[in-house]
Amino acid sequence: MWSAVIGRDEPGAMALATAAADAGADGETLLLDIVAAVQRRVGLEWAANRIGVAEEHAATAIIDRVIAVLAHHPAPPPSPTRGNVTVACVDGEWHALPARLLAETLTGRGWRVDFLGAHTPTPHLVAHVHQSNPAAALLSASLPTHLPTAHQAVTAVQSLGIPVMVGGAAFGADGRYARLLGADAWAPDARGAADRLARGITARHAERRHEIDDLPHLADQEYTFVKSNRATLVRQCLAALDERGPGMRAYSAAQRERTAEDLAHIVDFLATALYVDEADLFTSFVDWTRDILTARHVPAAGLRLGLDILGEQLRDFPRALGFIRVASETLPTAPTHAGPETP
What we know:
This protein has helices at 2-6, 10-22, 27-47, 53-71, 97-108, 122-132, 147-158, 176-180, 190-199, 211-214, 222-228, 230-244, 253-276, 279-295, 300-313, 318-328, and strands spanning 84-89, 112-115, 137-140, 164-167, 185-186. The protein is mainly α. It has a five-stranded parallel sheet with strand order 2-1-3-4-5, with helices on both faces. The longest helix is centred in the C-terminal third of the chain and has 24 residues, at 253-276.
């Protein structure tokens, strides 16, 4: 399957899937142990710079087609026997494949599933569950930067008396952020979610809560400041890099755009770390960014210079400054004579 997907052989990938299903392979096993495993490898190959973005997109599109074939092979799924649930990605989350795999798994286990797909705005999610009254809403988020919007979705759905289960890499390998945000349940993967749903989920919150009710540290307004001043912080950091990193001045427009994007991601993850008050979230992202840049032959010292400059912009915000210092300690010392050497 990997060879077919990475070789852009869509007919071959679909033939493999249907042949396995015809031979009696369990549909859930094919989805979660074969197709999902191939998709994870696609992500790892991109991170290691062994495939490009276009190749990653082409592979993901083939995998999406394979899922569709398996979902309706050899016949449409049986009639639902367990009730209805809603599966959706939180507002801003475009990585729909994990939620799609969950929806197909639940369908195979007898649930009637309303799959709302990627990037479901919270008002539309609330309107849907209000109308359909599901046994539970299952929300997916892959990127931690979507935790604030996930929190809004969780509290809004719970205010209707509908229990909410969350899952995806954004909530941490141990579900720590699911608990922090007050979700009624968390599962590490599709099988775990299906098993947990089968045992029943009770809504613990029936009132509308505010963010600060769950996260009292937000009272210091550091998250609000960083989030609302994102564009200004990125612009100021770029200007400082121009002054302190002569190599930046030779960058092309495309190279400067990539640098601005990296800085914007750093600010976004810092804001999210402030939201959940978790330094490890920011440090983990910085470590991941270092590995991504290293695989692309970009010196990690340039990343530390960018963090140092961001820290100077936020010197009056103790939590933010502390998070930046902790993350910077994992990186090589930034050179004082030059900035990033390559894009």
